[in-house]
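Q: My collaborator sent me two sequences in one message, no labels, and asked for predicted structures for both. Can we handle them in order? The first one she listed is below.
A: Yes, handling them in the order given. First sequence, followed by its structure tokens:
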Amino acid sequence: MGWRRYLDTAFLKDRLIRLWKEERRFLWIGLGACLFVIVFARLVGFSARDVADVIFQFALLALLAGAGYFVLQRLCCMERHSKLCEQGLIVDRLIKSTELLAHEKESVRIGGIYGLWRIAVDSQNQNDKRTVLDILCSFVRASYGDTVVRFSDAGLSVSSRNGAFHSTEMADDAEVEKKEHSTRVRPDVQTVLDFLGYQLEDLQLSARYRLNLNGAMLQHARLKGANLLGAYLEEANLEGADLEGCNLKAAEMSRVRLAGAHLDGANLSEANLFLANLEGSSLFIANLERSYLAGAYLAGGNLLGAKLKGANLKKTNLAEANLSSAIFSSRKQLGTAKLHGVDLAGAVFLDECKQNTGGPAPEDQTQEA
């Protein structure tokens, strides 16, 4: 049993030596205090019996204080040990869940995703939470659907499932065949997007986390009403994605592919959409105020009622786009934009509204109300 070790002379000697080295300062303080009490009592004229009583009470108090200090020290050690064990358990869970993301079975990968999210929720360490988010974002960026690359005669065969490469002697006339079985995101990737887009606030992060989804292949992703505030989506593929009501404020989306995407009611204010492709996309009553759309391609897009106040539209292609009821700061915004086949009769220019009515523009009236 554990108590028997205290009967061992060597163990007791070792403990006493350690106690003397670590806590001897308290012993000297106690001895000094006793000496002070004795001298003071003799000077005042206390009897030897009174002095002995005072010393006894003082020694008893010192003993109780020492016992309390020892208990407090043991509790602190136990707390540190508990934290270390907890951290080790989290690291072990993190490693196992991350390994599941590389499994060939989709159901196993989804299980690993749920395991990682549970770690982020359970852990009180902000670094653990951000580590999990980094892993999940990396998983999304590395997922390209089911892609097969082959050389018909002799060449390189690539399987995106297991990442295996089979090389042979390449012929000069090798032909490359790339086949995508599905243009939609895989269910496991959609599961990650659901967590990142709808449940990020559950992690109670101390500072805002900006999702890094640069270059991700997210065709036809379902992100209706998702919160992607300040997300990095540069060169990402979101063609045909459902982003209705999505919060993309201040998002970095240069060269993003959003052709045919549904962005009705989305918040794209202050977003960077430099050279973005939004051909045929729907931006009904979307908020594009102060967004950077220089060189963007919005040909054939539906911008009915869209708010473009303060947006940078330098060399933006708006050919055949529907700009009815779209709100602009002034016509100067469209100075270098390509407007082939565009009818601006129904567009709203705030500076002209103020001049004609002599009062606030329609948008300003709405804000005042």
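Q: And the one she listed second?
A: Here it is, processed independently of the first:
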Amino acid sequence: RGYVTVLADYRLYPEVYYPAFMEDGAKALAWVHHHIGEYGGRADNVFVTGHSAGGYMALMLTVNDRFLAAEGGNASWIRGAIGIAGPYDFLPFTDPNIKSIFSQEEDIKTQPISFVKKPVPPILLLSGDEDEDVGVKNTLNMAEKLRSAGSPVTERVYPGVGHITIILAVADGFQRKAPTLEDMLAFIKANSIRNDQ
């Protein structure tokens, strides 16, 4: 589609606990900020996105200064963020594994929604109304909180779409299942810096 794309990995539980994987995400974004020009990209035109836990990480990097500050950066490194079926507001913890993953930090400090206090770069939030893994309330609550803080946010809830289908719809042959890719591309285009700027 004409975009330079970087796919970053991160360490998982039980190897690490929160916030180690967020620190991995910040290090990856710092690398992109400093090196994307070598690949034909622009450091001032970087979008972060992810599905599920990746959506959580993309939003947490955008709203919580802590992680990028540790890498010498801030939210200005992010031109826009796209969260796809991400958990942003999921207290109280009920799953023992989730509780364990986040056990090294005060519960409220693990929630992206709790860090929305000021305007941040534009955000697109996508979810499906049949998502049984990450409830649509995460998207709706986060969008409302971002909007109340003065942030530009767009949310889309796709009817008849579940947790896996929403990301599967990005792949060739499955794009009729949900307009995930179409909405992502439209958001990036609308918020990108033009080449002549």
